[in-house]
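Appendix B, record 7
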Amino acid sequence: MAQQQSGADKVAGGAAGRVVFVGAESTGKSTLSEYLAHAYGTVSVPEIGRFIWEEKGGKLNADDYVEIAVRHRAAEDAAMAQARRWLFVDTNALTTLLLGVQFRQVGDPPPAELLGAADDCKARYAYTFVCADDIPYEEQDVRENEAWRGRIQQLVLQDLEARGIPYTIVRGSVEERAAQVRRVLDATTPAA
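Structure tokens (predicted):
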């Protein structure tokens, strides 16, 4: 069940607010992040893990997942200098950790640095949006399958609930999802 969220307290001191899109693969996170960055005249941060996954043919280990989390956070921090009002982020360390565990490439216990980055997600983002799995699944060589997408989607929601991270689920076309996000964001005025 989605929780109501208010990220106004996480947007202060004139800094742009970080808005993250999470969900399973092929749920439209990248498209929505880029679409909204264009609409707001700001920047977005792509999913760094996808580049590393493709580069290594999906053969990752726990150190690779730490690298993904560290490089993704560094990309976000660097993008903050160009962000205007909002920084749109495709995926975060929570998803990186979850996928590493589900692919059995991150053991138990996971590396402390990866756990720390995942734990920081509650405070790092002004808003968390979950892209629903209601759009057609796009087959790609680096993706699993539609059943896997549904399983991971449920795990993402369970993880957010367990961590007490408020989120909003967005559904429909890119335009419909963008309108849902805009209703939430436009009700928040970041401090100048």
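Remarks on this record: The chain has a mean pLDDT of 88. The first strand starts at residue 17 and ends at 22.
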